[in-house]
Design goal:
The protein is of the alpha+beta class and 233 residues long. Helices cover 21% and strands 25% of the residues. It has a single domain, classed as 2-Layer Sandwich (D-amino Acid Aminotransferase, Chain A, domain 1).
């Protein structure tokens, strides 16, 4: 592990959502919010290791190491196509479970246009006002777990904190493959109507609006990021 990654381990924390309504996010990228544990991940695929195996460390929002997810660590070691990376994402058990967790049996969802209008009018709640489904859910080593990457903060020792979000996501696609235990999070540009019903029907409860040109400030609130519930009525 090199000095750059050691610095990340001790200093960086996930960037937090701000307090603004989603309507105030300029030129947003929109993505479903995963139910799971928000983490930062560092992966070193080469370096002075006796076993010559990728080095993977998963850190929670307090900077503490999360262990007991060997399948995820192995998947990350196989998925990264760079010397080293730092990723922002979620440990989640929802990737394969789909609609079984949506709790929508017998529920008539509103039309997509109505859902979008309600979402925009009601977005931007304070963090403490969101329901538990929007909060970080501790990962459970006893159930199948996947890491879903939503952002890329460093690659090949180059910090990307001042690179616009859209470009970070494009680079992420080029340096991170997908496998059984590693996925890249989906994101779309407006209009949102075609996606809301699909996302809600497979178990997502909230969406995040993130400014496409926004920078990443570890550990700080960013009003260029906002979150809102997906309406169900």
């Amino acid at each position: 592990m090199n000095d750059s990654t050691q610095t990340v381990r001790t200093a960086w924390r996930p960037q937090r959502f701000g307090r603004h309504n989603v309507r105030k996010v300029v030129d947003p990228l929109i993505e479903p919010v995963w139910v799971g544990e928000r983490v930062l991940v560092q992966v070193e695929t080469s370096g002075p290791r006796a076993d010559d195996q990728p080095f993977v460390v998963i850190l929670d929002e307090d900077g503490d190491t999360i262990q007991n997810f060997p399948d995820v660590e192995g998947g990350l070691g196989a998925a990264v196509r760079a010397t080293n990376v730092v990723l922002d994402g979620y440990l989640t058990d929802r990737v394969e479970r789909g609609a079984e967790d949506s709790n929508l049996t017998g529920v008539q969802l509103p039309k997509a246009t109505d859902m979008t209008r309600q979402l925009l009018m009601g977005g931007g709640r304070r963090r403490e006002e969101l329901t538990p489904l929007d909060q970080s859910k501790p990962a459970d080593p006893r159930v199948p777990t996947t890491f879903v990457a939503v952002d890329l903060l460093m690659v090949d020792d180059q910090e990307l904190l001042d690179v616009p979000l859209l470009e970070r996501k494009r680079v992420l696609e080029s340096v991170l493959d997908e496998n059984q235990f590693v996925r890249r999070g989906i994101y779309v540009r407006p209009p949102l109507d075609p996606w809301l019903i699909s996302w809600r029907s497979i178990g997502f409860h909230s969406v995040a609006f993130k400014a496409a040109n926004g920078r990443y400030r570890p550990g700080l609130d960013n009003d260029g990021w906002a979150i809102s519930r997906i309406p169900t009525r």
